[in-house]
Specification:
Order of helices and strands: EHHEEEHEHEHEHHEEHH
Largest sheet: 5 strands, parallel
Strand content: 15-25%
Radius of gyration: 22 Å
CATH class of the largest domain: Alpha Beta
CATH architecture of the largest domain: 3-Layer(aba) Sandwich
Bound molecules: S-adenosylmethionine
Shape: elongated
CATH superfamily of the largest domain: SPOUT methyltransferase, trefoil knot domain
Distance between the termini: 30 Å
Helix content: 25-40%
Number of strands: 9
Number of helices: 9
CATH topology of the largest domain: Alpha/beta knot
């Protein structure tokens, strides 16, 4: 599900919001809007995010409640037509985006919803190639539909199941994209991963480490042979078999 917004050039409204920091000129800038910014702290302390934060990745976490035009920090409301749960209000999301970007812009703004385009490695590569994008997460019963239709440019799902909030989906996108940025991982680690071009988009071959034999379960002899030509052929064959099965 994709909708295109009619927003034009973005500009910063609140001078106090972004702190001046020195990023790589090509740093990817990701903003996450959430009701639980503190939930992201463990992710930012771990590789691969920790390795690229402040250099290849400029990550900012925004709380909808800090921008709500409603009293008492209200962000949600009951659904029109009745039904269970609360809906994240369109005016609240709009106020948050407006405060951060001004009169909206050409920026890619992704609503995280189980009804969106399903995340896969192709979409991850696409996002890693962007200069900047924004993730909108909801809780409760989700977004007022006008957020997805008019404020977001895309809708993305991390899979055909329902979680209680968009924080884990946002973290999934963040981690998957961050590990594609320069310096996030050793180049060799990423080269032969599942879905990588080196494996023609297929699954990775089986991997083993010591001990060579455990409870009678042997590591394939070819991997102990030291014959790198044979090992390479065996791995490619295994990758092909796994991908087709
Ligand atoms: C309980 S869900 C809302 C589900 C919605 N009522 C529906 O039935 O489609 C609350 C929020 O969690 C996030 N979420 C839950 N599952 C998700 C998924 N599979 N992919 C992306 N976001 C998800 C979204 O931000 C969603 O709006």
């Amino acid at each position: 599900m994709t909708s295109t917004s009619t927003r034009d050039a973005s500009s910063w409204r609140r001078g106090s919001l972004p702190k001046a920091r020195f990023f790589h000129p090509a740093a990817l800038q990701i903003d996450v809007f959430t009701l639980l910014p503190h939930a992201f702290s463990w992710l930012t302390e771990q590789r691969p995010l920790a390795a690229v934060l402040g250099s290849e990745l400029d990550l900012r976490l925004w709380n909808y409640r800090d921008f709500t035009p409603l009293t008492g920090g209200q962000v949600d409301d009951e659904p029109y037509g009745g039904g269970a749960g609360m809906i994240l209000r369109v005016d609240v999301v709009d106020a948050a985006l407006e405060a951060v970007y001004g009169d909206f812009g050409s920026r890619r703004i992704i609503a995280l919803t189980p009804q969106g385009r399903q995340l896969d490695q192709e979409l991850v590569e696409e996002l890693a190639g962007e200069e900047a994008f924004t993730l909108l997460s909801a809780r409760f019963e989700g977004f007022d539909e006008r957020v997805v239709e008019h404020l977001a440019t895309d809708a993305v799902s991390i899979g055909p199941y329902v979680l209680s909030g968009g924080e884990l989906p946002a973290m999934v996108v963040l981690e998957a994209v961050a590990r594609r940025l320069p310096g996030a991982m050793r180049a060799e680690s990423a080269m032969y991963e599942s879905f990588s071009p080196s494996l023609e988009g297929g699954l990775e071959f089986p991997q083993y480490t010591r001990p060579a034999e455990f409870r009678g379960w042997q590591v394939p002899e070819v991997l102990l042979s030291g014959d790198h030509g044979r090992i390479d052929s065996w791995r490619r064959e295994q990758s092909r078999e796994r991908t087709l099965s």
